[in-house]
Amino acid sequence: MEDDHPDLPWPLSGADALRAELLAAYDDPSRGHHSVRHLREVLTRLDELASAGAGFDRTPVQLAAWFHDAVYDGERDAEERSASWAEEALAPLVDATTLAEVVRLVRLTEHHRPEADDANGCALSDADLSILAAPPERYEEYVAAVRTEYAHLPDEVFAAGRADVLQQLAAKPQLFHTEHGIASWEAPARNNIAAELEKLRPSR
Questions:
Q1: So what's the architecture of 16-203 in CATH?
Q2: Best CA proximity match to 129, nearest among 23, 137, 77, 121
Q3: Mean pLDDT by 10 residues, the chain (204 residues)
Q4: Please, which residues have CB within 8 angstroms of residue 20's CB and are 6 or more apart in sequence?
Q5: Quick check: 40 and 8 in contact, CB under 8 A?
């Protein structure tokens, strides 16, 4: 099968079938934000962090990026099911240490609260949340894409849930954990969150 996304870095040779399975999951038409575009942006941000001097183990972190939203259907245990898929699919392909690290990192993306000395977790968490710091036009596209994933919810229900998520993020001492993330993404992300919360308040 022809690779429609040859630009996406994939760290495993000889595992093209698994890569194609993951791309098919991200390409599901029911997805809004959690699509191939999001996967590409996370992988690009990981490259940006590495170029800025963030030290992390590229293979497990890249694999965790591929798997972190492999399952996404709006249910609360999607991260756990994504981790289970990684655990099963990667077992014959990587060593036990790498496997355990990928599974741990996928689970970490449920809450994005890595410890300060968790370089791999900090890098993946920052790359995953970097969309919050996008320029206003891209941020609006992101918000609209998230809304499509919850199209079954009435506006007032979605607005309340979305506001809760944003308030939880805003309450964190810091959204980002790498030096580059803090310097480049923290302020614009908080501005975007505050602006979105302001728009949501009349709906609550």
A1: Orthogonal Bundle (1.10)
A2: 121
A3: 74 95 94 94 97 97 97 84 96 97 96 94 98 96 93 92 94 96 98 95 57
A4: 1, 3
A5: yes
